[in-house]
Amino acid sequence: MSLLSHNQIHTLLDEGVVVYAKPEHINSASLDIQLGRKLLIERTDVKLYQEGKLKRIVLKDREKMQMVEWDLEREGPYILYPGEFILAHSVELFNLPNNVSCEYKLKSSMARIGLDHLNAGWCDAGWHGSVLTLELKNCSRNHEIVLQNGDLIGQMIFFQHEEVPELASYATRGRYNNDKSVSGAKYKARSIVFGDKTEEEYQEEFEKEHPPEEPIEAPLPVKILEVSDE
Questions:
Q1: What confidence tens digit (pLDDT) does each residue in 134-148 have?
Q2: Fewer CB within 10 Å, N- or C-terminus of the chain?
Q3: Can you give the CATH number for the domain in which 109 is found?
């Protein structure tokens, strides 16, 4: 497995492996990504909160959190309070071939203000058609963090490796392909509902709001991408 550097990441953008990314956001061995406009924030049940009761999630039943939508363009910046947890998403959309995996990392400047990302940033080869869902938390005790649409929210690092067999590819096995907006936990054979909308409706909105300037022929998940520094 090899870490991809600046020129190789340029190739990923040129080949449509990463869509909506800006070339000026390519670093020496990573790609800065931007915060998308939709957030999902934990719904607060005031009555239960006052009674000191919490909603229980049974892990083995893969129950979902109760979330409500926040639109950074329509409703303005979001204030992330100490200890608060939200789901967000990247502007960039990813189409990983079967020989490229990637991982999300916070930038040090964000960590130094107490913004944390839960350790779920690994993206397997074959993951495609999707923005990256982010799990963000304010770890400070006395500071609010202001989140705005388009903020540089972190960086992706990319690895090239031996081709993954089709049956083992995320394109075949994964649940989080073709997510065009922020996505909560998924369950088989049913759609996830956030507020009054399903994930399918979020995806339709994303496609309307983010038309590519030119049609992009993204590589199929099974395509093997040969990336070099030449």
A1: 999 999 999 999 999
A2: C
A3: 2.70.40.10
pTM: 0.76
Considering the candidates 135, 163, 201, 205, report the single residue annotated as catalytic.
Answer: 135
Residue 102 located in a structural domain: yes
**Strands (E) located in 21-84:** 31-34, 38-42, 67-71, 78-80
Residue 31 token pair: 């790609």
- Residues spanned by the domain of 98: 2-209
How do residues 186-215 score in pLDDT, each as one tens digit? Answer: 654 334 444 455 555 655 665 666 555 443
The answer as to whether 220 is a domain residue is no
Domain assignment of residue 153, yes or no: yes
Backbone angles phi, psi at 201, to 5 degrees: -70, -40
Residue 135 is among the residues annotated as catalytic for this protein: yes
- Tell me the per-residue pLDDT of 151-190, one tens digit each, with 9 for 90 and over: 999 999 999 999 989 888 988 877 777 677 776 566 543 3
What does the alpha-carbon distance between residue 13 and residue 35 come to, in Å, rounded to a whole number?
A: 18
Q: What local confidence, expressed as pLDDT, does residue 79 receive? A: 96
Neighbours of 54 (CB within 10 A): 9
215 in a structural domain: no
- C-alpha closest to that of 82 among 143, 135, 136: 143
